[in-house]
Specification:
Low-confidence stretches: 41-46, 61-68, 200-263
Shape: globular
Number of strands: 14
Order of helices and strands: EHEHEHEHEHHEHEHEEHEHEEEEH
Distance between the termini: 50 Å
Strand content: 15-25%
Radius of gyration: 20 Å
């Protein structure tokens, strides 16, 4: 039976880096297929992962929880039928809801093995405040939460984030060590142990109903506490699973108070993508990325330079530029709560 591992995480948390670590280590001798779901018109991360010789099926122009639910289910079935992998790794869009990914997998009668959420410890509180509907959902439905960039903050900051995670998901197993110091075997061991601990019944009903003794929501069993599946207040922390019903502004310009039913990433996030033949120096590229405003949550891509090709990643206040393999054409993807496309084109000198 194919093992299905879902590795989620909000924009720029480090999902692709973690997957590369696993694929280059303990999983290199397994028959693995990776399904990526990019929010945007151009798949970027797949280029990095193809270097590991892994079969990749990319799904672009949306996210699993939005317009592509049907395509995603079809992709799952096709991959299992055509490749018969030992392990299927799913990397959802950073703005996808983990609960929806679980539902789509179970709808095609596949068993979810590991449910992982990668959380950037430096940005966790900010994302919880501004994008809680999506960020919190990924944590709530994870079995294992892996903190990234813990080496860059104090122990007190790490402990604070772990406490926040356990408010949403008391049963989550947390990995707080710098994963560069952990073996891939150690990480996989925790992921598999979490699956054993959280193994649940296959019969379930998802979202928007009231629980009873046997009701499960998106793969999680809800006991007889005063807890309701989705869209309801869960406890004294005023945490809500799917929707924030007060007048909180999420930072994306949308008032969540007026959204009813299932709230999609397409309502809150936008993306632009460009092919480019321009050549940039590393310094020019760094200066361009530094000009992105506070509404930009993620930028990534690959461009020509005077010293070969440069691959880049941007999240607020962090820029990573590194050499990469030769590409057929440069690609730039920008994701944000709002985007001034004219300004983006001006910054990157796109005609």
């Amino acid at each position: 039976m194919t093992k299905v591992d879902v590795i989620s995480g909000f924009l720029g948390a480090g999902k692709t880096t973690l997957i590369k670590k696993l694929l280059e280590g303990e999983l290199k001798n397994e028959k693995v297929v990776l399904i990526e779901n990019e929010f945007g018109d151009v798949g970027i991360d797949g280029t990095f992962l193809k270097e590991a010789g892994i079969e990749i099926k990319e799904i672009n122009s949306g996210c699993i929880c939005c317009s592509l639910v049907g395509d995603f289910r079809e992709a799952l079935l096709k991959v299992v039928e055509e490749y018969a992998p030992e392990r299927l790794i799913i990397e959802p869009s950073g703005v996808g809801k983990l609960s929806d990914v679980i539902q789509a997998i179970e709808d095609v009668h596949l068993h979810v093995n590991a449910l992982v959420c990668v959380v950037d410890v430096k940005k966790a509180k900010m994302y919880h405040k501004n994008f809680k509907e999506f960020f919190d959902n990924q944590i709530e439905y994870a079995k294992t939460v892996i903190l990234s960039r813990t080496q860059d903050v104090s122990d007190e900051k790490v402990e604070e984030v772990v406490h926040m995670i356990h408010e949403f998901n008391p049963d989550a197993k947390c990995i707080i060590s710098d994963w560069n110091e952990l073996s891939d075997h150690q990480i996989l061991e925790v992921m598999d142990e979490a699956d054993d601990k959280h193994h649940h019944e296959e019969e379930h009903e998802c979202c928007c109903g009231h629980h009873d003794e046997e009701h499960e929501c998106c793969g999680h069993h809800h006991d007889e506490e005063d807890h309701e599946c989705c869209c309801h207040d869960h406890d004294e922390h005023d945490y809500e699973c799917c929707h924030d019903h007060d007048d909180h502004e999420c930072g994306c310009g949308h008032d969540h108070h007026h959204h009813h039913g299932h709230h999609h990433a397409d309502d809150d996030f936008v993306s632009v993508a460009y092919d480019t033949a321009h050549s940039y120096t590393k310094e020019e590229l760094h200066d361009m990325l530094a000009q992105l405003d506070e509404n930009i949550l993620r930028a990534k891509g690959m461009v020509k330079s005077n010293e070969g090709w440069l691959f880049f990643d941007y999240v607020p206040n962090e820029i990573d530029i590194r050499p990469g393999e030769v590409q057929t054409i440069g690609k730039i993807v920008v994701i944000g709560s709002t985007i001034d496309e004219d300004k983006i084109k001006e910054i990157f000198r796109i005609g």
